[in-house]
Amino acid sequence: MNRKNQLPPNEIAYKIRSGHLPSLSRMITRVESNRLEDQNYANDVLNELLPYTGNSLRIGISGIPGSGKSTFMEAFGTKLCEQGMKIAVLAIDPSSPYSGGSILGDSTRMEKLTQHPNAFVRPSPSNGRHGGLHSKTFETMLLCEAAGYDIVFIETVGVGQSEGEVRELVDFFMLLTIARSGDDLQGIKRGILELVDYIIVNKCDGELIRESKQTAISLKHSLQLIKPPTKEWSQRVITCSSINGNGLDQIQNDINQFFDHIKQNDFLSQRRVDQKKNWFHRSIKQTILHSIYSDETVRNILLDQEIKFLNNEIGLSEASKKVLNSIYR
Ligand SMILES: Nc1nc2c(ncn2[C@@H]2O[C@H](COP(=O)(O)OP(=O)(O)O)[C@@H](O)[C@H]2O)c(=O)[nH]1
Ligand SMILES: [Mg+2]
Q1: 3-state secondary structure of 70
Q2: Which of 57, 74, 298, 318 can pair with 110 through a Cys bridge, CB separation 3.0 to 4.6 Å?
């Protein structure tokens, strides 16, 4: 990218708001970049765009690899687009730190959705080795909002701890799962059930119909013991097939009901305040980490303290203080 010819922040912000896709894509790349100058520029552009954010439905969808997240998004997203809605899908892909490529190389690409003029599909690598989010997923979502998308979906591979991160970013959180036997159901941890507003048992078609319905009933039982994450909203479980489309209408109705509910009760505005607060704290932490690892003097002091600590020459709190002092020297 030619940074000498870069547009002033207000101009690129205007282009993004006007729906200019290359500008949106380029900004996401800048947002995700580790270069300080990219980050500063991205922050300036985000500042310009902030007044135009907040109008989308922020929806998280998580599930183990192979549960059908991409196939579901292809079917459900296309359905919404055909109704005239504008849909952004941020697909966070667990990338291998060794090959730099995707672990799930053969994973379903949302070809139909990608080609729909109302859709914007953006794959990003996750920061974690096995999945989870990208550290800038929230910023990317804000950019999509400013670009006028009605719904932003954040699709992630569920790896146990990443669900908590997704929950912090979204208004509505869905778990996508498949028919399981009784023992396997234990695999869906209580901790995850406490985070989700909605569970979809996907692949309820062909030979799996009976088992899928049974799984849904078992999950409903498990949920009775759980305190729902959204006040006055009882978590729901539904079966669906992303191949034949059964259940998709119901899911759309339920999502509408959910948002009507949280808008009426001010729960949405509270959730948005929490999301912004979390964003603030995440950014501060990232800035501090960045200032440690990007500054050569600080980094040298850090490595020096590490050696002393390993040799038992210095205690942990003294070493931390030395590193901190070097940041604020
Ligand atoms: N029968 C059936 N197969 C499905 C359904 N949804 C996804 N699949 C298949 O399951 C496999 C994994 O789907 P994919 O969307 O890539 O899963 P992801 O890893 O969660 O994104 C693919 O072979 C899909 O064709 C469904 O509703 N019914
Ligand atoms: Mg996928």
Answers
A1: helix
A2: 74
Q: Which atom of ligand 1 is nearest to the CA of 240?
A: 27
Ligand 1, atom 9: closest residue by C-alpha: 68
What crossing angle do the helices spanning 248-264 and 267-294 adopt, rounded to 10°? 90
Angle between helices 137-146 and 36-49 (to 10 degrees): 40
Q: Which pLDDT tens digit goes with each residue over 49-87? A: 999 999 999 999 999 888 999 999 999 999 999 999 999
The C-alpha R_g of the chain, in whole angstroms, comes to 22
pLDDT at residue 92, as a whole number:
84
C-alpha pair distances (Å), 235 with each of 21, 213, 216, 223: 36, 16, 12, 7
> How many other β-carbons are positioned within 10 Å of the β-carbon of residue 210?
10
The predicted pLDDT at position 274 comes to 96
57-63 vs 151-157, strand pairing mode: parallel
Pairs from 287-291 (Cβ < 8 Å, separation ≥ 24): 288/327, 290/36, 291/327
Does ligand 1 have an atom closer than 6 angstroms to the CB of 241? Answer: yes
pLDDT for the residue numbered 248? 98
User: pTM for this structure?
Assistant: 0.90
For residue 244, give the ligand 1 atom closest to its CA.
Answer: 27
- pLDDT score recorded for residue 4: 61
**Which residues in the chain show pLDDT less than 50?**
1, 96-101, 105-106
Residue nearest to atom 13 of ligand 1 (CA): 68
| pLDDT at residue 288, rounded to an integer | 81
Q: What is the DSSP letter of 50?
A: G
**Best mutation site among 69, 106, 108, 130 for ligand 1 pocket (most ligand atoms within 8 Å of CB):** 108
Contact 26, 15 (CB under 8 A): no
268 alpha carbon – ligand 2 mean position (Å): 28
| CA of 255 relative to ligand 2 center, distance in Å | 21
71 lines ligand 1 (CB under 6 A): yes
For atom 6 of ligand 1, the residue with the nearest CA is: 68
Quote the tokens at residue 90: 């941020």
